[in-house]
Design goal:
three-stranded antiparallel beta sheet
Length: 207
């Protein structure tokens, strides 16, 4: 577990400095006061407060607990990594069997997104500062993004060739944004979304 030991004129200042250095919040740490501040005799030999602050329930710890329970309940063996930096928490399953990978990802990443949503709720519960959570399985999201970009360009060509709008299959907001972004500078092409969630889809049309 991550921890730091800080010395400051007061206990409160030492705790605040430790929380800042750890990028943690009060309800995520254990605080040990090693020394109370003392003024000394006639102002001589004064000592600062010294505290040790340890993260016990931060974003990384919450994420690991969630993933461990999830994999156990799903009877899946997998290796994963958790990295937390700049208020972004990446949880990556780096080794998993092919069958189990398909189960975790789901059709077009549906299960992956649902797990990410639940993980996001777990990590951010009770926090003042929001942490962005990204859950991935063997770089699936990057591969899916490339697939969607190729699909977008292919469907734009189809739209031009047949001179009619093309409606794509329903997608989640993240995937729709990829389509819109890919085609935003395509000459003579416009995109928009229609329908209600979870059946909302991207429409590709000519200007």
């Amino acid at each position: 577990m991550k921890n730091v030991t800080i010395e400051k004129p007061t206990v409160e200042e030492a705790i605040a400095a430790a929380l800042k250095e750890l990028h943690a919040e009060n309800n995520e740490v254990e605080i040990e006061i090693i020394n109370e501040p003392s003024k000394g005799f006639f102002g001589l030999g004064s000592k600062d407060a010294k505290v040790k602050v340890t993260i016990t329930n931060g974003p990384e710890e919450r994420a690991r607990k969630f993933i461990d329970i999830l994999l156990k309940k799903m009877s899946i063996e997998a290796d994963y990594e958790v990295n937390y930096s700049d208020n972004i928490l990446n949880v990556d399953i780096v080794k998993i069997g092919e069958d189990d990978k398909g189960i975790v990802i789901g059709k077009r990443g549906k299960n992956l997104d649902e797990i990410q949503f639940l993980l996001n709720l777990t990590v951010n519960k009770g926090r003042e500062n929001y942490v962005r959570v990204i859950f991935n399985v063997e770089d699936y999201r990057a591969k899916r993004e490339e697939t969607l970009k190729r699909l977008a360009l292919k469907m734009a060509d189809k739209c031009r060739y047949y001179n009619r709008k093309v409606k794509l299959e329903p997608m989640n907001p993240y995937e729709r944004r990829i389509i819109h972004s890919t085609l935003q500078d395509e000459k003579g092409i416009i995109t928009y979304s229609e329908g209600e969630e979870p059946y909302r889809k991207v429409v590709i049309d000519q200007k």
